[in-house]
Amino acid sequence: MKRNLLISIWMTLATTVLLGIVYPLVVTGLAQVLYPRRANGELIESRGKLVGSRLIGQPFTSPGYFHSRPSAAGPAGYDPTQSGGSNLAPTNKALLDRVSASVQTLHAENPNAPIPIDLVTASASGLDPDISPAAAEFQIPRVAKERKMNQDDLRALVQQHTEQRQFGFLGEPRVNVLGLNLELDQIHAIQ
Amino acid sequence: MTANGWFQIGLFLLIIFALTKPMGVFMARVFDGGKTFLDPMLRPLERLLYRVTGVDDTREMRWTEYAIAMLLFSGVSMVVLYLIQRFQAWLPWNPQHWTNVAPDLAFNTAASFTTNTNWQAYSGETTMSYFTQMAGLAYHNFMSAATGIALAIAVIRGIARREKETLGNFWVDLTRAILWVLLPACIVIALFFVSQGMIQNFKPYVTTQLLDPQTVQVTGADGKTTQQRITEQLIPQGPVASQEVIKMFGTNGGGFFNANSAHPYENPNPLTNFIQIILIFAIPAGLTYTLGRMTGSQKHGWAVWSAMAALFVAGVICAYTAESRGNPLLHGTDQKVSATQPGGNMEGKEVRFGIANSALFATVTTDASCGAVNGMHDSFTPLGGMIPLINMMLGEVVFGGVGAGLYGVLVMVILAVFIAGLMVGRTPEYLGKKIEAYDVKMAMLSVLIFSLIILIFTAIGVVTSYGKAGISNPGPHGLSQILYAYTSGAANNGSAFGGGNWNSLWYNVTMSFDMLLGRFFMVIPVLAIAGSLARKKIVPESAGTFPVTTPLFSALLVSVVLIVSALTFFPALSLGPILEHLLMNAGKVF
């Protein structure tokens, strides 16, 4: 008993140093040398300031931008310090009210198209950087009108920013909203 | 549902099948003292560890000493984790200056990570310093997994040995599990994860400018609404990849961030997601092969594997079907799957994973005792969310937690051969060992304690005001939330119907006991069985022996697993998710 207790104490200390300190430091060192941009969060710089991360979604409400999905992270959504989903149950009235409010807004804006489900549902992380290609297509008329662009030109741009399934089968096709909006601002700024 | 979705699920099972043998052979060698290609690097480190800690690696332990050593180590390392959290403000690597963690939350978290549960009543990005994350939490991801593997190996030895008193040396098994099985793979895969976009640094959180600044109405604590202008994002950083890999490989599941594997920094793309799911099953599947190898009955290992695979397939079909159907209450939306959208129930799911990978992840994470999530189970459809719940209620024996899954299923195996023995009217035998009253009593003890703690805690939870304060979704879903919480704790899973208000004194304390009882009252009877089996003589096989290597045995094992939990938990399930499903289809809202 006493012998095993002593071993327990020494084992905890020794393995904490090995697994809790040396291991993450070694991985960090190698990661910073091998993949410095990725290890530091794929931050995007524009005109000398940081404008976000390619992996972290941002809230958009101006009509000239493609909008991200609803987000439960923080009051404006997309607060990376409050990651998480709405955690509303499928039968919770709060969920149905939220969705039907979004449905009304979106229907007014593009009455002819069905409303893609991802555009009215909150993601799991609250930071989802992507929307489905259908959700991007849905927004093309609004953004094109606001930016005075030809819809087909805009569609071509969306297609460029559409990432297909990895290796053709893993995951789902998606459009990175921040990347798309940044490029829109560059090539076709709102006058 | 799409053909592509089924293809991904099928491919996943195929990869697990292909990994089973190499993982199993490797682990059998590691724990039998055989040679492996890692020996030249790791032997010196192993010897150094024994010298520092005073371990005599030639000494064998009886089951009681094995259990005591395991309990002492768990106790000491749990106290250290508690202290690290309580003193983190004065410890290094705390760039955001997080304060010391409150006592009840620190106790809960310490119990949670020591028991391989990783129930999280905190949000990582606003509570834990980098030091606490790596030296406290990620450290326990290694140690609780290694402890599980050691226990499984001890139990396998108990079955394999004849007329022996001992089961091996806990310290040696623990050390070899860390050095050979866990650490080398973690270093390689962590770097791969970084190459895919998972972060790994010690930087303070980064401030970035929003492209489209927002103005929102905020209601303050005094009830007044004010306008707030939000122009920036504060993006958390940290050593994520090194923690992520062991979180999955050790079936721990405690996320670096609150959103867990849904967070883009913890799971940046479909490939990392797929590898994370594979990591969950890699060791548990391999251990079935190790079981066959070390007991000299490879077919028995595969029979157990097949029973597990059958239960996995049943679960994933239900979950994927339910989630693809979507939510009939969301009128005016297009939930049909097409080439340009995943469709289905997308509330609480990420676009890059869609329905198939979220349903697969949810099934696997609860088959095993992982508990990581890439979608929010609370927002799953009632039946889609019931699958994770049932998986945990089965005792997480569908591949299961590292080690825990194997020794969990061996309890079910003993019950299965016992029942088969009753049917043919002979003393039951398992791989040549007579299964006697003592062994069956111990097996029943662990089964009964598991269901008792879940049902009693849930019953108290739904009738007291402290318990009901945890509910965030009204209606039958509220019962599901509490039931899910205590099931997750007792099964050492750690996933949650995460909307609940779990960081309260009541839940922090009751969940701690739920987790500790669930882990150690499972382990001790199982070790007792192993000790008892090791002492037994081999009886020669005869015509009356029920073979444990056939599809018939696999089917019997599946039935025992299902019947034991179905009879116990069906009433509770029918008042929770099943009722919610019926009401949802009837258009009822809460």
Summarize the structure.
The complex is a heterodimer of chains A (191) and B (590). Chain A is mainly alpha-helical and 191 residues long.
Keywords:
heterodimer, A: 191 residues, 2 domains, 3-stranded antiparallel sheet, two-stranded antiparallel ribbon, 5 strands, elongated, B: 590 residues, 6% strand
Summarize the structure in words.
The complex is a heterodimer of chains A (191) and B (590). Chain A folds into two domains: 35 residues; 146 residues, no CATH class. Chain A contains six helices and five strands, in the order H-H-E-E-H-E-H-H-E-E-H. In chain A, a hairpin with a 2-residue loop joins strand 1 and strand 2. The longest helix of chain A has 33 residues. Chain A is elongated and about 75 Å long. The model of chain A has no long low-confidence stretch (mean pLDDT 95). Chain B is mainly α and 590 residues long. Chain B folds into two domains: 549 residues, no CATH class; 30 residues, no CATH class. Helix content of chain B is 61%, strand content 6%. In chain B, strands 1-2 form a two-stranded antiparallel ribbon. Chain B has a two-stranded antiparallel ribbon with strand order 3-4. Chain B has a two-stranded antiparallel ribbon with strand order 5-6. In chain B, strand 3 and strand 4 form a beta hairpin. Chain B is globular and about 80 Å long. The relative contact order of chain B is 0.12. At the A-B interface, helix 1, strand 2, helix 3, strand 3 and helix 4 of A face helix 1, helix 2, helix 3, helix 5 and helix 6 of B.
